[in-house]
Amino acid sequence: MTLLPAPVEAVPINGLPRLAWRHPQVVIGGGLLLLLMLLALAAPFYAGDPQNMDPFIRLQPPSEEHWFGTDNLGRDVFARTIVGARISLLVGLISALLAACAGLSIGIIAGYVRAFDNVIMRIMDALMSIPTFLLAIALISLTGPGIGILIVAIALPETPAVTRLVRSVVLGVRERPYVEAALCGGARLPKILWRHILPSTIPPLMVQSATVCASAILTEAGLSFLGVGVPSEFPSWGNMISGSRLYLAIAPLTVFAPGICLAVTVLAVNLLGDGLRDLFDPRAKRRR
Predict the structure, then answer these.
(1) CB-side neighbour CA atoms (13 Å) of 122
(2) CB environment 204-216: b (16+ within 10 A), e (fewer)
(3) How many angstroms separate the CA atoms of 253 and 25, rounded?
(4) Contact 235, 50 (CB under 8 A)
(5) DSSP code at position 94
(6) 23-39+66-287 domain in CATH 1.10.3720.10?
């Protein structure tokens, strides 16, 4: 008996441009993120050295040479703000990727293999009961500051939410006729999971990953502001705001520049996530 593949509720590739323009959130959010990535990657060609210190030009106002002025150590605020985008995007994207991969793997197992469901979900519930900041601070305190451990510390608390989402999708998909037909046809478990279960989890997983990415960017900034996130030698938005908050009255751009970039980045990620939700599930837009 020939088994038909599971239907994938996704948008055809050749229809993405047309449908994306129907959803301005996808265009605006994706465009802002792409622009920020390009600016961050091309920073060495136009932004200068973010670590170059000149005590003779401390807390200078904006000028032709220093577009956003200088900080309390005489470093160029514009260069540090642009380079700081690398840290935030790196932490946000990799944390979202790790949480998505871990949550997808665990959620599929929990949703399809009933023997593991109760044990896995109780572990996820225990992780969700611990505040994200508290868990991240505890992990960083045990291992010391670093970008790698920061990414793990942010991704770990985000994994339970992704796991619960994937599990809920799998619980609904595994009862569908095409999955039961595959079982009756003698298909092995890996093939069922790969061909029939996994495709249905991708659209909601993409939307959830955008939410995780925005949360990770904010968490990184908050932890860096508290001094337990990105090491101080790296220019990150959280470090910049923390180090310049005492000079807000005389050099406001030292705080506002990274703060506005942080807000715009999180807004862009959330817009992209909302647009993807409407793109993959048109009923969501009608309900709103």
Answers:
(1) 4
(2) bbbbbbbbbbbbb
(3) 28
(4) yes
(5) H
(6) yes
- C-alpha distances out from residue 172 to 75, 106, 167, Å: 55, 16, 9
Give residue limits of the domains in the chain.
23-39+66-287
Q: From the first residue on, what is the mean pLDDT of each consecutive set of 10 residues in the chain (288 residues)?
A: 40 53 79 89 82 83 84 87 89 91 89 83 86 82 81 89 89 72 66 75 86 90 85 83 86 89 91 81 53
Q: What angle do CA 262, 16, 281 make, to 5 degrees?
A: 75
Instruction: Collect all residues with Cβ–Cβ distance below 8 Å to 185 and sequence separation of at least 6.
Output: 1, 3
Main-chain dihedrals φ then ψ at residue 67, nearest 5 degrees: -60, -35
Query: Collapsing DSSP states into helix, strand and coil, what is residue 88?
Result: helix
pTM of the predicted protein model: 0.82
**Helix, coil or strand: residue 76:** strand
CA 245 to chain centre: 26
Rounded to whole angstroms, the Cα distance separating 90 from 222 reads 16
For residue 138, the tally of other CB atoms under 10 A from its CB is: 13
Contact call for residues 262 and 88 (beta carbons, < 8 A): yes
**Residue 136: both structure tokens together:** 């991240």
> What gap in Å lies between CA 212 and CA 277, rounded to an integer?
14
